[in-house]
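Board notes (copied after class):
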Amino acid sequence: MATMESLIGLVNRIQMACTVLGDHGGEGMSLWEALPTVAVVGGQSSGKSSVLESVVGRDFLPRGSGIVTRRPLVLQLHKIERGTEYAEFLHAPRKKFTDFAAVRKEIEDETERVTGRSKAISNRPIHLSIYSPNVVNLTLIDLPGLTKVAVEGQPESIVEDIENMVRSYVEKPNCIILAISPANQDIATSDAIKIAREVDPTGERTFGVVTKLDLMDKGTNCLDVLEGRSYRLQHPWVGIVNRSQADINKNVDMMAARRKEQEYFESSPDYGHLAPKMGSVYLAKLLSRHLESVIRQKIPSIVALINKNIDDINAELDRIGRPIGTDGGAQLYTILEMCRAFDRVFKEHLDGGRPGGDRIYGVFDHQLPAALKKLPLDRHLSASNVRKVVSEADGYQPHLVAPEQGYRRLIDGSLGYFKGPAEASVDAVHFILKELVRKSIAETVELKRFPSLQADIANASNESLEKFRDESRKTVSRLVEMESTYLTVDFFRKIHESDLNPRNMSDKNSRDDKHSRDDKHSRDDKHSRDDKYSNRSGPNAAPDRYDDYHFRKIGSNVSAYIGMVSDTLRNTIPKAVVYCQVREARRSLLNLFYAQIGRKEKEQLGKMLDEDPSLMEKREMLAKRLQLYKTSRDEIDSVAWK
């Protein structure tokens, strides 16, 4: 089995590592809290400092009136076989203190560094390690003394603040309570026993210490307490004789004080029979043996907590991203992985796995048809405008049979209106694609850690989308221009045949009604037909090519043709938009970006992977914690079962 020294030393190392990482106990469950500790609790002037100095064998703690201990002091004692004893502070690594008066001064300075010169308290501990042949392996936590009244210079809440701090330590199930009570005070009024009884009612975690036995009135003793009759604990009470104020003023050597204490118990008629189990030396050995026993007992739960924390940290590192390599190849690989992750999310939006792609269909099914219906064709094909256009097209020579140039001008003018809705559809889809890029970047978990790369991908994607939009605009414009460049001759031939054969008029009317774009054109067409027959003297009579009926007839024919073209464009414009924009975005959104990063140097790639400083700090802290837990687990495995 592991030795006492190895187990306690292991706990000491883990405690120090936890403190470096900001885990110093007193604030919720943590690895620090899972480690067994000994907390020294007592009221002001109960003799706490004297007990600790007796255990250490050195005079090193600040003294004075009021609250002297204003920050928890984690005192780790390390037994060495030989050599000069020295002290080290965790906040001042690699600096050894051999003068213990300097240790006292450093404690005072470090306390004021956090709390200032006020009499306020702080729960941030001071870590002090003492290496000496005169100590046992032991860790003690000296807590501020309990008080009942706030004195001048202290906040009104000081009484409650100190009690809450003490409770935050002693209420933990792994904390061993060293309750200090002065012998010249009724044990029933002891602050330390009161709080120990509340958090440890069975007394299994509490060690009672009675100080100042030599200061009791003559004829009285403390046997009822020391022998457990006044208040029984599961562990034996230990009596301590503190140095007198005269000894302190004379700087009496602590080793001499230890001998004097032992002589007092051996020569005392009241306590002589208890002498082997009294004194600071016995107390230190008793606590060390018990601490080692508790550590051994708690090892399985400590290992379980360490394993759980390792799993939690690994999961969190996976979520925020692992550290990346510093060489150019690793950086390029990371960038490409981030791009692929973004591309997967973007395609899911387009393909329906995530919301957003359906908005593109909305452009084709609602926005485009609505825009086509709102085109000002009624005004353009009104009788007055038709007359004007046809007359201008004829010039000085009126048309002989049919105003073909007038037809062409009217059709060209009508088709010109289609470019607006066509380009609006292109722009609407472009806006949706840009929005999907933004959403995809935000939803790509792997990218959250790289704000610079997010911006680079967004810029590259938008640049590609701009090119796709330009190409799409050219394509839909060509579709409109193609309809204007070459007219469907059969449509007009059938109209001419219907005019020559009145028996086919009903069929012609049906076609006109079918291609008419709205009810108004239908009404105009009907009115034209009525005028046509009312002005004819016979079935084959030709109309006056300059009357209103003639121009309404031209407008109706053009309107029917434009209706047919509108139906065609309503189907072909979405095809062109999807082909030029959606399809290309799905296939090659980041192709240009891939080509660009392939030419970048290592320093440029590093800048693209510049992370949020707070995230980098968090990952660094998690990595340190992970290393702590893994090292702790390995060390426990190496010493626990030797």
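Comment from the instructor: The chain has 24 helices and nine strands. Residues 514-545 have pLDDT under 50 and may be disordered.
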